[in-house]
Amino acid sequence: MTKRKAADEVFCRSCGAAIKQASELCPNCGVRNDNYSPASSGGGRGGVHDPAQYETSVSDTWWYGVAAGTGIWVLLVLASALGGDLGAGGGILVLIGWAGLPLSVYFDSQYVRANSEWDPNVAVWVILSAIWFLNIAAGAAYLYRRHQVLGEP
Ligand SMILES: [Zn+2]
Predict the structure, then answer these.
(1) How far from each other are the two terminal CA atoms of the chain, in whole angstroms?
(2) Per residue in 22-74, pLDDT tens?
(3) Distance between Cα 47 and ligand 1 center (Å)
(4) 9: β partners
(5) How far, in Å, is the centroid of ligand 1 from the Cα of 5?
(6) Element containing residue 11 per DSSP (H, E)
(7) Alpha carbon of 35 to ligand 1 centroid (Å)
(8) How many Å lie between the centroid of ligand 1 and the Cα of residue 38?
(9) 3-state helix, strand and coil shares in percent for the chain, rounded to the nearest 5
(10) Measured in angstroms, how far is the CA atom of residue 1 from the centroid of ligand 1?
(11) How many whole angstroms from its chain centre is CA 68?
(12) Residue spans per domain, the chain
């Protein structure tokens, strides 16, 4: 006779019955379950990221901001490399790019966290996207990773 057990079950060390891993005592013989692990582990550190744990009302359109912010920075860097002067428009672009990119990353990462298996470290990405020049790489890397886990854009 072969013993069968489900994925969430273990064999009792005393009587060999298949019992739920989440049950502390064997219902068959009453011996303590050696493999007992409470089902409600609270989803602590080290666990697999579960998107269902997160709820968000953030829309999925913030990546436009990430893309636009990254694009603005590419434009600014190109303009300064070419010695061009964007004038007043350049100042506005700097403001939009500098504030808009981290803001977009902040909101979008919450959407990503609740809708994919990727759990972006929000603080790290926001900081990276606020540092001049580094933010271009950060924005591109973010969009690439986002595309991998979500299949969009
Ligand atoms: Zn037992």
Answers:
(1) 53
(2) 888 999 999 988 877 765 544 444 557 788 888 888 888 999 999 999 998 89
(3) 29
(4) 20
(5) 14
(6) strand 9-11
(7) 12
(8) 18
(9) 50, 5, 45
(10) 17
(11) 21
(12) 7-41, 58-150
